[in-house]
């Protein structure tokens, strides 16, 4: 455990500015809202329907020329993504307004003979809407389950603080996808779920230490208990997050474009989840506990 500890426990006051967690929450929600309204989401074909083709060409293509040729032939925007070295395998996404058969036939003419088609998937708008609904419900029930778990293990104020922190994390991921224009697909939903899972793990560690400190440090105020608990777990929170970020960073740099598209939102999500567990979830408790600690007992 020595590797997961600082040499000395820091003494940082995280509750000095009581309005800070509220300001962080409001700022992130506002940023996500503005991003969604003015930038919007680059929704992938998983959610809005279209055609997904994985094709292996005879040689590495000139992407700019191929994209131009496909756009001219199909009369629509086309997304090309190289997914292997020596870069002759492409992932092609079409937001087709034509019949699937016609679009695929046109695509094959442009790509030419000798192309090997590893996968051709067509997703209709109805299926895409079903995926959106299923993903939204999955995220919703995950949040409800976490809220119930924290309430059962601690108390309602802890559960509400954790829930607000997780909503902040989701807003942060949403803002990232809006402002950076990354494709919002099934990988985005995975990044939401992994982020809130990682964030609540850090939060529960802090809450558990807070409950422990409350048991034998009866002379401290709630603000002092919160600061002490965060500082005592700070090394664990930062160092475990750093090792995770290191792994995700290597995946982003060395894993290729497809892996990078999955790892970058997770990288951002871990950063957001780490700072929210430190700066938001526990400090928010100071808003719910204004009485002397001895008058309020944690279960």
How would you summarize this macromolecular structure in one to three sentences?
With 299 residues, the chain is α+β, with helices and mostly antiparallel strands. Helix content is 66%, strand content 10%. The chain has helices at residues 20-39, 45-48, 63-74, 100-111, 125-153, 156-180, 186-216, 222-254, 256-281, 285-288; strands at 42-43, 50-56, 78-82, 89-94, 116-123, 183-184.
User: What do we call the CATH homologous superfamily of the largest domain?
Assistant: Multidrug efflux transporter AcrB transmembrane domain
**What percent of residues adopt helix (DSSP H or I)?**
55-70%
Report the average pLDDT across residues: 81
> How does the overall form come out from the CA principal axes?
elongated
CATH topology of the largest domain: Multidrug efflux transporter AcrB transmembrane fold
Total separate domains: 2
The CATH architecture of the largest domain: Up-down Bundle
Count of distinct strands: 6
Radius of gyration: 24 Å
Number of helices: 10
Task: Give, in order, the helices and strands.
Answer: HEHEHEEHEHHEHHHH
Query: What topology, given as strand order, has the largest sheet?
Result: 3-4-2-5
Largest sheet: 4 strands, antiparallel
Question: Which stretches are low in confidence, meaning pLDDT under 50 for 5 or more residues running?
Answer: 295-299
State the name of the first-level CATH class of the largest domain.
Mainly Alpha
Calculate the terminal CA-CA distance, rounded to whole Å: 28 Å
- The oligomeric state of the chains shown is single chain
Instruction: Work out the strand percent.
Output: 5-15%
